[in-house]
Amino acid sequence: MKFFSDFFVTVFYIGRIPLAPGTFSSLFSVIIWFILFKAANPIFLVILTIILFFLGVLACEHDNKYSNKHDPSYIVIDEFVGQWIVFLFIPVNPLNALIGFILFRFFDISKIGPVGYFERMPGGWGVMADDVVAGVLSLMILFGLQSFLP
């Protein structure tokens, strides 16, 4: 179980990158978005996102129990899922990828507004929830920008 938990919370060990692991996990999420969202059914992707979220909560709870740390930098499944949420209902193109990536990283790093509130939740819920909120806020802004973008 420890191997799976570590493999999952670090998103294939991306979280073990010494510099900016959350940013690299978000970038990996964008790449996967480009691959999957062009080929997969949107309903499947929403269901997959929900499953990844709940697995993330469980895996983060497991990791927190053994590491005695809340949201250490190597846990990046939260960034992966949060970044993915940004693109759930957005057309696949490079401009949306860039804007969505920047928006999500801004909210995730700054923790402004409700993002900071949800980060203070205990356990795996807090690890995952702040990034979900950052993803939803970024999605709302990016969705609103769609009529202004080429």
What report would you give on this structure?
The chain is mainly α and 150 residues long. It has one domain (21-148). 73% of the residues lie in helices and 0% in strands. The chain has seven helices and no strands. The longest helix has 26 residues, at 42-67.
* Molecular shape: globular
The largest sheet is:
none
Radius of gyration, CA atoms, in whole angstroms: 15 Å
Query: Which segments are poorly predicted (pLDDT under 50) over 5 or more consecutive residues?
Result: none
Helix content: over 70%
How many domain regions?
1
Number of strands: 0
Report the order of strands and helices: HHHHHHH
Task: Give a nutshell description of this structure.
The protein has 150 residues and is an all-alpha fold. It is built from 7 helices and no strands. It starts with a helix and ends in a 5-residue tail after the last helix.
Task: Label this structure with key terms.
7 helices, 150 residues, globular, mainly alpha
Secondary-structure blueprint:
Elements (H helix, E strand, L loop, with lengths): L1 H8 L11 H19 L2 H26 L9 H10 L7 H17 L3 H6 L3 H23 L5
